[in-house]
Amino acid sequence: MLKLSSLSKDFGALRVLDNLDLAIPTRGIFGLIGPNGAGKTTIFNLITGLLPPSSGSIEFLGERLNGLPPFMITRRGIARTFQNIRLFKDMTAEENVLVAMGDLSKYHTLKALLPGGYRDDENSQRKSARELLSRVGLSAKAHQPAAFLSYGEQRRLELARALATRPKLLLLDEPAAGMNAAEKQQLMEEIEKLEASGLSIVLIEHDMRFVMGICAEIAVLNFGRWIAQGSPTEIRAHPKVIEAYLGNNDTGDT
Fold first, then answer.
1. Is residue 29 classed as helix, strand or coil in its secondary structure?
2. Could you tell me where the DSSP H helices lie in the chain?
3. Can you tell me the distance from the alpha carbon of 191 to that of 203, in angstroms, rounded to the nearest whole number?
4. What is the rounded CA–CA span in Å between residue 46 and residue 35?
């Protein structure tokens, strides 16, 4: 589904990503891990068009994404959440989801001349938004401003907003950050349901229990280079991974 070829990113004299190759399968949950500063979020920023690559190519479903603006990449079926929550804090939860759905609306100027006009479309959009909020357990908070939601609820609202764009590939940047054990378990179950519905998912996460418990395959990045890729069992035992990232406690959080 997604192919990175000889992908590099420089910030001045600093090379953050160095000649990366990676293929993401059409189905499954793929983990991307590595120490802080390894370049993980930069990869997401390159895929979604927030940053241009210094060299190399990014292909999604056979189409080259290099040079496309973020909104066009979203239209092609890639959605993401952010490491630092980026909600419209003064808008309600429902309004946050509606903003993401705006590009998918069927509004047409001629509808203004018809009985019901935009109202029917708006009602349909609001119904879809409420369904997405229910999916992530936020039905009761639909009319609350995002600023009043707890940290875990804001994380789930970001997920609902990403799903509102109807993606084929979902990029999750530290989705479990700041969540308690119960919230992480709920999130894990929701991600597994999304994968079962046909979504491809790539997630960045520092909680090793979470990553090892949900991902079929994991790639490890260190200083902008791949150092290992394989199943959770293979990654857990890989000497370079233990040295660079996991330390001696290969099942704990890091």
1. strand
2. 40-47, 70-75, 93-101, 117-135, 151-163, 181-196, 208-214, 232-237, 239-241
3. 10
4. 19
**Is residue 106 predicted with pLDDT exceeding 70?**
no
Sign of CA dihedral 112, 128, 1, 86: positive
- Beta-bridge mates of residue 219: 32, 229
Domain residue limits, the chain: 1-77+168-254, 88-166
Model confidence over 184-205: pLDDT tens digits?
898 999 999 999 988 999 999 9
Contact 224, 212 (CB under 8 A): no
Token look-up 């189905």 returns 27
In which residue are the tokens 């789930």 written?
Answer: 156
**168's tokens:** 């084929």
Task: Measure the CA–CA gap between 82 and 172, rounded to whole angstroms.
Answer: 7
Helix axes 181-196, 151-163, angle to 10 degrees: 10
What fold is seen in the domain 1-77+168-254? Rossmann fold (3.40.50)
Alpha-carbon torsion, ordered 105, 110, 115, 121, to 10 deg = 0
Question: Which pLDDT score is estimated for 254?
Answer: 38
Alpha helices in 6-111 (DSSP H): 40-47, 70-75, 93-101
Strand partners, 22: 4
- How many CB atoms within 10 Å of residue 93? 30
Coil, strand or helix at 16: strand
- What is the phi-psi region of residue 218: left when phi exceeds 0, alpha when psi lies from -120 to 50, beta otherwise? beta
- Say what the pTM is: 0.86
Q: Is 147 exposed, middle or buried (CB count within 10 Å of its CB: 0-12, 13-18, 19+)?
A: exposed
Q: Is the pLDDT of residue 107 over 60?
A: no
